[in-house]
Amino acid sequence: MSTLEYSELTLEHFQNPRNVGVAKDGNGYGKIGEPGCGDICEITLRIEDNIIKEIKFRVYGCAGAIATSSVVTEIARKKSIDFALRLTDDDVVDYLGGLPEGKKHCSLLAIKAMQHAIYDHLFNKRLEQEGNTATKTQFDQLAEETWQEIRRRAQGN
Ligand code: FES
Predict the structure, then answer these.
(1) To 10 degrees, the CA torsion angle through 94, 18, 20, 1?
(2) Which atom of ligand 1 lies closest to the CA of 38?
């Protein structure tokens, strides 16, 4: 696939992106920037009982970033947190029938932003439950434990 060739499905998602905006009553927020090109993706979601009930995105970026963000929200919507954490950028590229070589990194933006939004949700839940983060060390430890949980669940453990 050459640099400027997008699949029909990619162009369709670019022209009619799904799930644009901010999730109502959201309880998870993630924002990721791509230093190479300066593009930014923001994801908000509402999780209830481990299920992503609503997921929305806003992107400042290229056609590939818009299309892949749209696809990530479509795939993850109404699915479990664990399912969403196991999604990879390759899944997104495959779903779209490929992306031009120079645009493959775009598919990482929404995946990473979604991981951060899930992290935000799980971290705040821990904070509510444990409520014992009086010091920075305790706060950092809670953050590290949450990332460990994210990595574990992403591997299906
Ligand atoms: S060129 Fe920056 S995300 Fe696509």
Answers:
(1) 30
(2) 2
